Amino acid sequence: MNAPHEHVPAGALAGLKVVDLSRVLGGPYCTQALADHGAHVIKVEPPDGDETRGWGPPFLGDTAWYFVGVNRNKTGIALDLSRDEGRAILWRLLEDADVLVENFKPGTLARWGMDYERDLRPRFPRLIHCAVTGFGADGPLGGRPGYDAVIQAMAGLMSVNGERDGDATRIGLPIVDMVTGLNALAGILLALAEREKSGHGQSVDVALYDCGVSLLHPHLPNFFGSGRVPARSGNAHPNITPYDSYRTATAPIFLAVGNDRQFARLCAHLGAPELANDPRFADNRSRCAHRAELKAALEARLAAHACEPLARELIDAGVPCGPVRTVDEVVRDPHTLHRNLLVERDGYRGTASPIKLSRTPATYRSAPPALGADTRAVLDRLGVDPALQQQLLDAGVLKAPG
Hints:
By secondary structure, the chain is α/β, with parallel strands linked by helices. The chain is built from 18 helices and 14 strands. Helix 1 (about 25-35) crosses helix 7. The longest helix is centred in the middle third of the chain and has 24 residues, at about 175-200. The radius of gyration is 25 Å and the shape is elongated. The chain starts with 16 loop residues before the first strand and ends with a strand.
């Protein structure tokens, strides 16, 4: 991570203390973003750890890279919150905390005597509580557990993803979990900003189902406007064309032509200006009505070009496009490196923060913690007697290395 004598600027969230009880992806993705920008995030895991520690291969030592991907810059302790003694430690952690993030099944904190409205808010009026759940706490599906792929199915995302004549298909990354993490981040920052004016904290309710439904653009607006159920369209855009992947002499190229000016430039570059003047392709409405003819005409001309040089030429000419690349190609791409999108140090490799602040940039201070790595240090700072610590370790309430 940062070199021993390297100056590390204070992040935008320096001085903020976050107690992170979340596991898996949505919550940890949010809290890593907070940590990257300077917050002191204490990740509290159960004694057997966040389950994603085992979600491999691949593994870094005994820990899956899945876990490594969203847990850097955090202090790690292992604590059994199902035990009274474990919750007593949590109460002490919350005494000077600004934010509590959790993704327990609704009702769990209340059962433990830690309901936000009833128990936490009266005791910690400035605390921001963020609950990440599957479906929220109430309603027909309230309290049910939520998983990314299930929400993709239930929220309609799979129904619009896949080839036109194929089956509904899961989006190939946990987009609902990650967008939920981003919405949790936004909600926490909104609540912190409001606290500056009111002096009071509040609870942030972020549900995977809500976030999944929120992603249905432009399909929900299209449905509202037409009454027609959106269908799968492969890589093609339902509202714009040419906005699709197209065959070239080598690899596919993705064209994202959003207006008539860009379309004219594309046609001119391909040596076919007549296409831009063809009444079938004169504007986007006409092009959408003649998608198949336009795709055939374009691919006939693209067949004379290799993908990579053509993509560079077109983007330089103001035509939005790009080669369809694999992950290893993205890692090697000069622009990926120029934008400092990779973090590599001391055996750790990760995706850097995409949020670039000019005075207070994100920093990468520590690799994801081993299970319970900082338990003793955190309890020492809380003033927990070493003898009591040992009793709790012996009883399995705590876990620490060695």
